[in-house]
Automatic annotation (TrEMBL):
This is Short-chain dehydrogenase/reductase SDR. The keyword 4Fe-4S does not apply. Belongs to the short-chain dehydrogenases/reductases (SDR) family. Transmembrane segments: none annotated. GO terms for molecular function: oxidoreductase activity, acting on the CH-OH group of donors, NAD or NADP as acceptor. Keywords: Oxidoreductase. Pfam families: adh_short_C2. The keyword Oxidoreductase applies. PANTHER family: 3-OXOACYL-[ACYL-CARRIER-PROTEIN] REDUCTASE (PTHR42760:SF133), SHORT-CHAIN DEHYDROGENASES/REDUCTASES FAMILY MEMBER (PTHR42760). Gene3D superfamilies: NAD(P)-binding Rossmann-like Domain. It comes from Mucilaginibacter paludis DSM 18603.
Length: 267
């Protein structure tokens, strides 16, 4: 079990206050890491870090801002002397303020350009900047593990039928933004793994499936029916995979896409 230990390692999680972001932080802390809770909401990032323990650090970080990331990098290195794990978890998934407009706005024919651009900025440019600014510390120290969180929709096209209710009405469309950006993340992983392999930096993708989070009953049923395990994921279903990728247990693994989706993409 020592292979899975992250004792004395420094692990940064972006989007750390999200549904699975918190579970990522908890798993890394449990494995012994000093966890940097990085999120746009600085106040809550600090609160959550203190809940994890006194040795952890909460930072307000905008992943689309190079300056914000450079400030964070300097604070992390000043406190811990190194950055050993980076979990690029921050991402935007479509949310529409007016549920009555969701179907029309999410349709490809009507999807707003500014929403598409915002997803590119956070989901792709954010991963690029975090990896460039924080990952360079790893490259310079000669070791590290970067974990880019993608999605099953980075590998397969969305099944729009799962967004139909029990009456057969389409309530929502999965837009192009999420699959496009998550597909980009998977190939960025391959690029960076090849680029920094000789620097001792491993770069892998974790592709999770959908997490149950108080969605409509019809959606949970539709989604679950498409998985081999017959259910959506729980928020903590990715903790083991994350610690595996962060630790020496995956020491000979780089450029890979670890798919943890209950069998969604197996058939």
């Amino acid at each position: 079990m020592d292979l899975f230990s992250l004792k004395d390692k420094t692990a940064v999680v972006t989007g750390a206050l999200g549904l699975i972001g918190k579970k990522h932080c908890e798993a890394l802390a449990h494995a012994g890491a000093n966890v940097v809770v990085a999120d746009i909401n600085e106040e809550y990032a600090k609160m959550f870090a203190s809940e994890l323990g006194a040795q952890h650090l909460g930072l307000g970080v905008d992943v689309t801002s190079a300056e914000s990331l450079k400030v964070a990098r300097d604070q992390i290195v000043a406190k811990y002397d190194s950055i050993d794990v980076l979990v690029n978890n921050a991402a935007i998934n479509d949310m529409f303020e007016n549920p009555a407009m969701a179907k029309d706005l999410s349709a490809f024919e009507n999807y707003p350009l500014d929403a598409f651009q915002k997803s590119l900025d956070v989901n792709v440019t954010g991963v690029f900047l975090c990896s460039q600014i924080l990952g360079t510390v790893m490259a310079n120290q000669g070791s590290g593990s970067i974990i880019n969180v993608a999605s099953t929709y980075g590998m397969v096209g969305p099944d729009q039928s799962i967004y139909r209710n029990s009456c057969g009405e389409q309530t929502f469309f999965k837009s192009a933004a999420y699959p496009v950006t998550k597909g980009a993340v998977i190939n960025f992983t391959r690029f960076l793994a090849a680029y920094w392999g000789n620097k001792g930096v491993r770069v892998n993708t974790l592709s999770p499936g959908g997490v149950e989070n108080s969605q409509d009953e019809f959606f949970v049923g539709n989604y679950s029916a498409k998985t081999l395990l017959g259910r959506m994921a729980k928020a903590d279903d990715y903790q083991g995979a994350l610690v595996f990728l962060a630790s020496d247990a995956s020491a000979y693994m780089t450029g890979a896409n670890l798919v943890v989706d209950g069998g969604w993409t197996a058939i």
